[in-house]
Specification:
Largest sheet: 5 strands, antiparallel
Number of strands: 12
Strand content: 5-15%
Structural class: alpha+beta
Number of domains: 3
Shape: elongated
Number of helices: 19
Distance between the termini: 120 Å
Length: about 575
């Protein structure tokens, strides 16, 4: 027989093994096996204590029995854990174990009357029978019948044992019954019996047999020696069967995972091939395209072989001024990136590209989905343009002008440069409307807007801010007198008459100029000073420019009706 230290080490290894398993696996029975081997280990720790005083030996035996019985009951509970609620099976195990421990421990310390002992055995067996009857599912017909038979037949044997003998081995008798029930339940249903189930049944049955034989006082010496030498063998065999169960479950899990993976792969392949949007799988490193779905082949015009000789980047158009201008008018995409793709026939489309990491053929890759958003972006751009531009002339409106003016002033502060705000008003425009009609007036305004725009740089802004009023923002001026040159160029553009459908029409404008930071440093004041200067120009005779820096006071006047 191995020494107690070796037994304790082996049991400790079992405890550690199942401690690791119960933390890694979802099966609840691993947690019960972990707890069961801890209880068995504690029973061996108590049993291994030597040289116990005679008065404490009964306590040692009682504690050893309690731990061992609860450990075996924990193994039994683990076998029905998946069929019942956790709280229910734990309460049932505590009810059986508690009633048996009370009866056996009291009997160890106090000689109970035989009648009371019989009543105790009946109570314990009744609790065990009721628990087995309610906890074991009816579909376990054979195992359920055998366990219930054990409770009845073994209970009758215990009653005979109590009635005909001093019942000195009541603790071993109780453990034997629990081990027999564990042996039956561990076998599993006939359709699912495997090596671990047979090994566990043999182990529990041998464990019960060893305890049952040790209860008989008249065993031959050779049998007692054999029992002594191989006393712990059944326990380790049970441990071996449980370890074997771990590996069998691992193999089953792998098989289920493989089957699940095949199902998922088929679902993915079907979804990938039939998805309405172009999809690719590309290499995670240099971006080589590994495959493409039917939508990508159809929309882009490339064959699968052509795609597989390309990188994802080869589909993308490089950034340019047109793309940047387009992007500046749109909001940031909510997901992925927005790029331009070139089709095989040369067409360029805007797409929203989303990528996800995947494993493809055993290596890291990326799933790419491209959704054509060209039409939606055109609509968004048109709506954005309408919200910030004048419908008649196409020039920025007052809202966009104010944004541009704030940006211009901020830039001038940083660069220490000047900027000019020029308010331009068409002279006698009411007279044109009254004489020729509003349609001619609208055509005239379009021509005025076009001529003003032709003299304003792209980095600057010319906006329509009223019926016949326009406002220009010119930045990057070195000195205030540069604003006069801008005003003069705007005046000269109207030296030639405006050509309309009915003939030529002479048009003049009045301009008011305010300069940052010479006249003011904030947008509101600059706009006001520019507006006031424009009205001074009108009062002075029109067809001229006036400047906010001019000290001539602004006189009160009534704006001419035909202004």
């Amino acid at each position: 027989m191995q020494g107690p230290v070796v037994d304790l080490v082996l049991l400790m290894l079992l405890v550690l093994f199942f401690g690791l398993q119960q933390g890694r696996r979802p099966q609840i029975y691993f947690r019960f096996w972990f707890a069961g081997w801890i209880l068995v280990f504690f029973s061996y720790v108590v049993w291994a204590v030597q040289d116990v005083q005679e008065g404490l030996m009964r306590v040692q035996n009682a504690v050893c029995f309690d731990f061992l019985l609860m450990g075996v009951l924990t193994f039994i509970v683990s076998l029905v854990a998946n069929e019942n609620g956790l709280r229910r099976i734990i309460l049932a195990g505590l009810a059986i174990g508690g009633s048996v421990m009370i009866l056996v421990n009291v009997e160890d310390f106090v000689a109970l009357p035989r009648l009371l002992l019989v009543v105790g055995v009946l109570v314990c067996q009744g609790i065990a029978f009721y628990s087995a009857y309610t906890l074991l599912p009816h579909r376990w017909r054979r195992r359920r019948s055998i366990v219930l038979t054990i409770c009845v037949v073994y209970g009758a044997g215990l009653l005979a044992y109590v009635l005909t003998t001093p019942a000195t081995n009541l603790d071993s008798a109780a453990v034997v019954e629990a081990l027999l029930c564990a042996a039956v339940l561990y076998a599993g249903p006939p359709s699912r019996r495997n090596m671990s189930g047979w090994a566990g049944t043999v182990g529990f049955a041998a464990w019960a047999g060893f305890d049952l034989l040790s209860m008989h006082a008249g065993n031959p010496a050779s049998l007692d020696k054999a029992l002594y030498e191989f006393w712990n063998f059944p326990k380790y065999f049970v441990g071996f069967s449980m370890i074997l169960k771990v590996f069998e479950d691992t193999a089953d899990d792998k098989a289920r995972m493989a089957e699940t993976f095949r199902d998922l792969y088929e679902d993915f392949r079907l979804l990938y091939n039939t998805h309405p949007h172009p999809m690719w799988i590309r290499d995670d490193g240099k971006g080589w395209l590994l495959t493409a779905n039917e939508a990508a082949l159809k929309e882009y015009g490339y064959s699968l072989d052509e795609f597989q000789s390309m990188r994802m980047a080869e589909l993308e158009m490089p950034a340019d001024m047109e793309a940047e201008e387009f992007e500046s008018m749109l909001d940031e995409p909510t997901e992925g990136v927005r790029v331009r793709h070139r089709h095989k026939d040369g067409r360029v489309v805007w797409v929203s590209v989303v990528e996800r990491e995947i494993i493809y053929l055993g290596r890291k890759a990326r799933l790419v989905i491209a959704r054509n958003v060209t039409e939606r972006l055109k609509l968004d751009r048109e709506l954005s343009f309408r919200a910030q531009h004048d419908a008649l002339t196409g020039l920025p409106n007052r809202q966009l002008l104010e944004e541009r003016l704030d940006q211009c002033l901020q830039s001038c502060r940083v660069e220490d440069r000047r900027a000019a705000v020029l308010t331009v008003d068409v002279d006698h425009f009411k007279m044109i409307n009254d004489t020729y009609g509003h349609l001619v007036g609208d055509e005239c305004l379009k021509e005025v807007a076009a001529r003003l725009k032709s003299k304003i740089r792209k980095v600057d802004t010319i906006a329509r801010t009223g019926g016949e009023e326009f406002t220009a923002i010119v930045s990057g001026l070195s000195k205030a007198s540069d604003a006069e040159k801008v005003a003069a160029s705007l005046m000269r553009v109207f030296e030639a008459p405006v050509e309309l459908a009915f003939g030529a029409l002479g048009v003049t404008v009045s301009i008011g100029v305010a300069v940052y930071p010479d006249d003011a440093t904030d947008a509101i004041t600059l706009r006001r000073l520019s507006d006031e200067a424009m009205y001074r120009a009108k009062r002075a005779g029109r067809n001229r420019a006036a400047y906010a820096s001019d000290k001539t006071p602004v006189l009160d006047f009534k704006k001419p009706e035909a202004s």
